[in-house]
Automatic annotation (TrEMBL), chain A:
InterPro entries: ArnT-like_N, MIR_dom_sf, MIR_motif, PMT-like, PMT_4TMC. It catalyses: a di-trans,poly-cis-dolichyl beta-D-mannosyl phosphate + L-seryl-[protein] = 3-O-(alpha-D-mannosyl)-L-seryl-[protein] + a di-trans,poly-cis-dolichyl phosphate + H(+); a di-trans,poly-cis-dolichyl beta-D-mannosyl phosphate + L-threonyl-[protein] = 3-O-(alpha-D-mannosyl)-L-threonyl-[protein] + a di-trans,poly-cis-dolichyl phosphate + H(+). Keywords: Endoplasmic reticulum, Glycosyltransferase, Membrane, Repeat, Transferase, Transmembrane, Transmembrane helix. It comes from Ficedula albicollis (Collared flycatcher). Pathway: Protein modification; protein glycosylation. This is Protein O-mannosyl-transferase 2. One of its GO terms (molecular function) is dolichyl-phosphate-mannose-protein mannosyltransferase activity. It is a multi-pass membrane protein.
From TrEMBL, chain B:
Belongs to the glycosyltransferase 39 family. The lineage of its organism: Eukaryota, Metazoa, Chordata, Craniata, Vertebrata. This is Protein O-mannosyl-transferase 1. It is a multi-pass membrane protein. GO terms for cellular component: acrosomal vesicle; dolichyl-phosphate-mannose-protein mannosyltransferase complex; sarcoplasmic reticulum. GO terms for molecular function: dolichyl-phosphate-mannose-protein mannosyltransferase activity. The chain crosses the membrane at residues 68-88, 100-120, 126-142, 154-174, 186-203, 208-226, 246-267, 575-597, 639-659, 671-691. It comes from Ficedula albicollis. It is found in: Endoplasmic reticulum membrane. Its EC number is 2.4.1.109. The keyword Protein biosynthesis does not apply.
Length: 650, 725
């Protein structure tokens, strides 16, 4: 993806641009020239310079360890807990694999952990608000949030986490009666500024850079609306001038407004036997073609008087009844009560009639969304609905691909349901009418806000469009924490050079057990506190850590994990890794607290320290031991990648 | 001893006339003219077919929800003596004389009518005045949408009834908690809460939302009890166990029992059989059971079998082969092995028969005693009619080029050796030495040479493959997927070694007799899983709406239209009620937020007990509204206005709560108070007026003229049907 930035061609992806921009930047600085095609996993890089980009990702990935260490240290004030967490992250095979390649995830996790760390730091500065370090951490939280959001939309979850934490914080401050309302207002304002205004500004700026860098036409054009395309150098809509208002006799192309919707298209081929009436096919076609041209005619008068140059130009108005004649084949756009080829509940749309003479089923009422009768229709900007006069159905594209006989173009139907969807809306893109003055498209230049909004809509729709197909083995969210199955990153069958994303089983199962353990400890502590059991100050401090710090981290884990259960899109194993980070931090905190509890309860003196130290050592050894075994096992299965072997040396 | 003689036996009856009057009015409003229209109305066409199937004891699967609601509807049919003979094919079709319309519609109507007194009681239990309770009951009584929904054979009114019952009994239980814990009535209301919850969930999964709300409330209340230092640890534990029993164990047990009754009632095979696994089908009377009766259980070397793919999508099909070969070149230019085609065929056919062969021996008959095939054994599969071996090799499959082609091997003498060894892996084995069983075992066939797994790709072959489904060898089979799993459906021990005799044998039906019965739990898990995962393809509907339309009631649903006159029935709420319910929710939210913020600064606007009242009422009414409404924003299925009815019921209960609070605490002067009561009376009469105006659309009579209908179209988005003259 970084290649696109270096070549400055426009592309479309379901994620926001920051991650790809950073990779592009790293590649640019390290001398990568953007020529490698990046077509399928397993292709060899040959002479291309990719180390810079990989190094960048790996660097960000390795930052996770100190970040997690500092976060846990700040939360629990316990060095062993922090060390345990760091240890887990260093020796987790999954984290290593994930951060070694040119992926978005290490960047996302970097910003995510950055946000969590600065949030925690800021919380511990709460005793001296408005000091320099307080401001620093608060604004750093904001910056990291913008970064996380800018890499993937999964960053929204960490925004949610920080938001909830801030609300809790403010609620606390509100209850503090020694604080005047003015002071509270200041607190509120500072947070709004740093956690809402700042990230939003950064996020928008990021998109501004994105659009400024990518100013050439590229493979992503077709996903966007006509107005958007006119912004791209090299696109045929760039700097063209066409008549602004639609008139009778004009030759036009119509583009469907759904994402990646095609142009209204027809060709000489007929619908095959048994599929509706045996008339000419009408489809939606994604590429530009002469067969996309249609002529707008009045429903009751013929072509002749319109082509006469002396006759006055008559504009098409909202609510007019028109006829659309296909330019190449001179057939009219037609619909009738036969069922459509794929969407059985809709009506079939055909090309009918000879040289423009058809029947009353060729009449369509043209309407602009949100406009009154009699208004003119603007090219490119008006969203148009075509209603079939005889049956009342609306012309739309169903988005389904026709079989072989339809040349695998997209089905066009007439839907009897009068629901407002982009499927049934069209706009006019090309417009040729010699009698009208051409105006430059720059007049139609969309504002930055419009571009921003549109690209978000397209991204969101693209995300929800990633649906799993039938009979496809997909990863389910419940597979993840139990390390049920990995994700094949790359590799060719014959060789033993394979990269396989799989967590270190001991670590992952330890994490899983710890979540249950944590719940148990929390319930016990909370019930004990609620029952008013008298605790020593040491235990009080410990239970505060368990409840407050552990609670924050658990909330983070839940926020990064549970939403995936409700997602309809295709899910992958690597989606779990942000949650895994939280889970590892929880492991550190929980085991530390658990061993301390045990030590306190069992005996008060030196043995306590021994138990505590011994327990920790056991955990660490367990992780190390299993790691060695796992790696050997993986080599036997030929699923480890060559880099992991290098790592064994240090 | 004879103490009772000394004192007179006194029976004191306490009758709340309000309650009785409300119940009677509710009954009148819901039962009046119940048989009209004597035609299929809207979703009756959907639920009706299930009632018919219940009457005929034919098995079905309905993915819309658990069976309790359907069973209640069927109970109505049973009591009315319905024989199930009616073709539920079209909305608006006239009922024939054998359909007991009145009794079929009676249960939902009764449930709808009882919601009125329930609403009254809930407000009373929330410690609001009888005036407020009366208001709530009247609003429910005059709510057009609830009336329409409860007068037909639909499930929503039953669902709302159980939801309200659960809430009421929980409140009763909670109010008894303080002074008479563990008394008889305490137990009664606690158990009733659990029962009502499970009934609600059993009618529709939407009931889960309220169940969760009640569980959360119970948890919260229990949390407060933990903080109560007067309670001993033992009594706390007893409380905990009692709640766990009544609110979790009993609902689960009841839920299971719904399925038990469902499966006990429906023992005949029917149209939905093929969704289920072979084992399940075999447990039903008729259908597959007729074929499989008397098959040997254990698959042995020499067994003749048919193999069914477990997935059952896009259609159920059996592993199949025929004499035709793969074309040498496909249309896109790729080459094939030109060997015999192997497909998955959706119909029973003699070409579906395969013989399990031991690679080490030549014979194709079962030895005496039979040698069973176990997990991990290596077998060859011989196609019965053509006696060719099932084979896969490193040739791309016709439609899924990343997988291997599966064929029946023909030796063309072109140095392409046969690779026809398969390892049998029983997926649902209990131990590694399990025997491969007919119907019960789900097996994967792993190719020995390439470790590819035999898989149904789901694509259908072009003309040359007769549009049958493609079967491939999947090399990257990391996970478990049902498309890779097969089970033996028909099975017999082969006896004839000669090909001619064997062909005759293959054509003959199977005999012998062993019955296989699934345990109830196995059946339940399978059925439950199917209900949850089955998806209907076509989701577009004329009257479907989005959750956002519901608050403002921008949509309606036309339920029925008289074939000749303009009489029609619509699901349309009482506009006045809906608007004021929205206003009440808004006022509640704002006021709560205001109070909360002020309390945080230690400013108390209202006395503590009033605040308690305000929050508990809000928890029930606003909470009920939120849990029954907000989840719909996350759902991707087709939504209709009637999904909002449970939520709106809770929202309506909030109106009197807010009004009384305004009157008691915010209207300080007498003048303001009397103004508020006057306004309330005026508003109530406007509700009544709207009810009267729209009642022709709720009851379907009298028929209205087109002008009257046009006048009723208060919103442009309403779809009121006007006949062209």
């Amino acid at each position: 993806m970084g290649s696109y930035y270096i070549n400055r061609t426009f592309f479309f992806d379901v994620h926001p641009p920051l991650g790809k921009m950073l990779i592009g930047l790293a590649g640019y600085l390290s001398g990568y020239d953007g020529t490698f095609p990046f077509q399928k996993p397993g292709d060899r890089y040959e002479q291309h310079n990719y180390i810079g980009m990989r190094g960048f990702c790996a660097f960000l990935g390795s930052c996770l360890v100190p970040f997690a260490y500092l976060t846990v240290l700040e939360l629990s004030k316990s060095l062993p807990a922090a060390l345990l967490t760091a240890f887990i992250l260093i020796f987790d095979t999954g984290c290593i694999t994930l951060s070694q390649y040119i992926l978005l995830d290490p960047i996302l996790m970097f910003f995510l952990m950055g946000a969590v760390l600065s949030m925690v730091k800021c919380n511990s500065c709460a005793d001296r608000p408005f000091s320099a370090s307080w401001w620093f951490w608060l604004s750093l939280t904001g910056v990291s949030l913008a970064g996380a959001m800018g890499v993937k939309f999964v960053g929204l979850f960490v925004v949610l986490l920080v938001g909830l934490n801030t609300i809790y914080d403010l609620w606390d401050l509100l209850g503090n009666l020694s604080l005047s309302l003015v002071m509270f207002g200041k607190h509120l304002l500072a947070r709004v500024l740093c956690l809402i205004v700042l990230p939003l500004a950064l996020y928008t700026a990021m998109f501004a850079v994105h659009f400024a860098v990518l100013n050439r036409s590229g493979p992503g054009d077709g996903f966007f609306s006509s107005a958007f395309q006119s912004q791209l150098i090299g696109n045929n809509l760039h700097n063209v001038s066409i008549p602004e208002h639609l008139a009778y006799g004009s030759v036009v192309t119509m583009k469907n407004l759904r994402m990646a919707g095609g142009y209204l298209h027809s060709h000489w081929h007929l619908y095959p036997e048994g599929i509706g009436a045996r008339q000419q096919q009408v489809t939606a076609y994604l590429h530009k073609d002469l067969n996309n041209l249609w002529v707008i005619k009045k429903h009751d008068s013929d072509t002749a008087d319109l082509s006469d140059p002396s006759s006055p130009v008559e504009f098409v108005r909202h609510g007019d009844i028109i006829r659309l004649e296909h330019k190449e084949t001179s057939r009219n756009l037609h619909s009738h009560q036969h069922e459509a080829p794929l969407t059985r509940k809709h009506f079939q749309v055909t090309g009918y009639g000879i040289n423009g003479t058809g029947d009353s089923n060729d009449f369509w009422r043209i309407e602009v969304v949100g406009r009154k009768t009699g208004k003119l229709i603007k090219v490119l900007r008006s969203q148009v609905r075509l209603t079939h006069v005889a049956t009342g159905c609306i012309l739309g594209s169903s988005g389904k691909t026709l079989p072989k006989w339809g040349w695998e173009q997209v089905e066009v139907t007439c839907t009897p349901y009068s629901k407002e969807t982009p499927n049934s809306l069209w706009n006019f893109e090309d417009h040729i009418n010699p009698k009208l003055p051409n105006i430059s498209l720059d007049v139609l230049k969309p504002s930055f806000a419009e571009i921003l909004l549109e690209s978000h809509m397209v991204m969101i729709r693209g995300n929800s469009g990633l649906k799993p197909k039938d009979n496809e083995v997909t990863s389910k969210p419940w597979h993840w924490p139990i390390n049920y199955q990995g994700l094949r990153f790359s590799g060719v069958n014959e060789t033993d050079y394979r990269v396989y994303l799989l967590g270190n089983p001991v670590i992952w199962w330890l994490n899983l057990v710890t979540i249950g353990l944590y719940l148990l400890i929390t319930v016990c502590t909370a019930v004990a506190l609620k029952r008013g059991v008298q605790l020593t100050s040491e235990l009080k401090e410990l239970s505060r850590v368990v409840l407050r710090a552990g609670g924050q981290i658990t909330l983070g884990w839940l926020l990064h994990y549970l939403p995936f259960f409700m997602m309809g899109r295709v899910l992958y194993f690597h989606h779990y890794f942000p949650a895994m980070l939280f889970s590892s931090m929880l492991t550190g905190i929980t085991w530390d607290a658990l061993l301390k509890f045990c030590a306190v309860f069992l005996s008060p003196s030196t043995t306590a320290r021994k138990i505590y130290g011994g327990g920790f050592l056991a955990l660490v050894l367990l992780i190390l031991y299993r790691r060695e075994r796992t790696k050997r096992g993986e080599i036997r299965e030929k699923t480890i990648n060559d880099r992991l072997r290098d790592q064994q040396c240090f | 001893m004879l103490g009772f003689l000394k004192e007179p036996v006194v029976v004191t009856a306490e009758i709340n006339v309000n309650l009785v009057a409300l119940s009677v009015m509710g009954l009148i409003s819901r039962l009046w003219g119940l048989c009209y229209p004597r035609a299929v109305v809207f979703d009756e066409v959907y639920y009706g077919q299930f009632v018919s199937l219940y009457m005929k004891r034919i098995f079905f699967v309905d993915d819309s929800g658990p069976p309790f609601g359907h069973m209640l509807l069927a109970l109505g049919g049973y009591l009315g003596g319905f024989d199930g003979n009616f073709l539920w094919n079209r909305i608006g079709a006239e009922y024939s004389m054998n359909v007991p319309v009145w009794s079929l519609r009676l249960l939902p109507a009764l449930a709808g009518a009882l919601c009125v007194p329930l609403a009254y009681q809930i407000l009373v239990e929330l410690h609001f005045s009888h005036c407020a309770a009366l208001g709530a009951a009247l609003l429910i009584l005059l709510e057009n949408s609830l009336i329409t929904q409860s007068r037909f054979m639909l499930l929503e009114s039953i669902l709302i009834f159980f939801i309200l019952l659960a809430v009421l009994s929980y409140l009763k239980f909670y109010n008894l908690q303080k002074h008479s814990a563990f008394s008889g009535s305490w137990w009664f209301w606690l158990l009733l809460t659990g029962v009502a919850c499970s009934c609600a969930v059993g009618v529709k999964y939407m009931g889960l939302f309220t169940y969760m709300l009640l569980l959360a409330t119970a948890g919260l209340h229990f949390w407060h009890m933990i903080g109560d230092q007067n309670l001993s640890n033992i009594s706390l534990l007893c409380h905990f166990l009692a709640r766990g029993l009544a609110l979790i164990i009993i609902p689960m047990g009841l839920y299971l029992s719904f399925f038990y009754v469902h499966l006990a009632l429906l023992y005949r095979s029917g149209p939905h059989d093929q969704i289920m696994t072979s084992a399940f089908q075999a447990s039903l009377e008729g259908g597959l059971a007729r074929i499989t009766q008397g098959q040997p259980l254990e698959v042995a070397y020499g067994s003749q079998i048919t193999l069914r793919n477990v997935l059952g999508k896009p259609v159920q099909c059996w592993l199949h082969s025929h004499t035709n070969t793969y074309p040498i070149r496909y249309e896109n230019g790729r080459g094939s092995s030109h060997q015999q085609q192997v497909t998955c065929y959706p119909f029973k056919d003699v070409n579906n028969w395969w013989i399990v062969k031991d690679p080490g021996m030549q014979q194709l008959v079962v030895s005496n005693p039979p040698r069973p095939v176990r997990h991990g054994h290596i077998v060859q599969l011989v196609h019965g009619i053509t006696t060719r071996y099932l084979n896969t090799h490193d040739v791309a499959a016709p439609l899924s080029p990343h997988s291997q082609e599966v064929s029946c091997y023909i030796d063309y003498n072109i140095s392409m050796p046969a690779q026809n060894l398969w390892r049998v892996e029983i997926v649902n084995r209990e131990s590694d030495t399990d025997v491969w069983k007919t119907i019960l075992s789900e097996v994967r066939f792993v190719h020995v040479n390439t470790s590819a797994v035999l898989k149904l790709s789901g694509a259908s072959l072009p003309e040359w493959g007769y549009r049958q489904l493609e079967v491939v060898g999947e090399k990257l089979s990391k996970g478990y997927h049902q498309s890779m799993v097969w089970n033996v459906e028909e099975h017999r021990y082969g006896k004839s070694q000669e090909q001619k005799e064997r062909e005759v044998e293959l054509h003959s039906p199977t005999q012998m007799d062993i019955s296989k019965n699934l345990s109830f739990m196995a059946k339940f898990t399978e059925l439950q899983w199917k209900i949850l995962t089955l998806k209907n393809e076509d989701t577009e509907h004329k009257y479907s709406s989005s959750a956002l339309d519901w608050i403002t009631m921008d949509t309606n649903i036309a339920y029925w239209l008289h074939p000749t006159s303009g009489a029609q029935i619509h699901l349309l709420g009482n506009v006045a009620t809906w608007a004021s319910a929205n206003a009440a929710a808004l006022v509640y939210l704002c006021l709560s937020l205001w109070y909360l913020l002020r309390r945080r600064r230690k400013i108390y606007d209202i006395p503590e007990d009033a605040w308690q009242l305000w929050t508990s009422a809000g928890g029930v009414c606003a909470g009920g509204w939120a849990v029954n409404y907000l989840p719909f924003f996350l759902m991707e299925k087709t939504l209709f206005l009637y999904h909002y009815l449970p939520a709106v019921t809770f929202q309506i209960l909030l109106i009197p709560v807010v009004l009384q609070h305004l009157g008691d605490h915010l209207c300080r002067s007498v003048l303001l108070k009397s103004m508020l009561s006057a306004l309330t009376v005026a508003w109530l009469s406007s509700v009544y007026f709207v009810y009267c105006t729209f009642s022709p659309l709720s009851y379907g009579q009298p028929a209205l003229s087109p002008t009257e209908l046009r006048a009723l179209r208060w919103k442009d988005t309403w779809n009121i049907l006007i006949r062209k003259q």
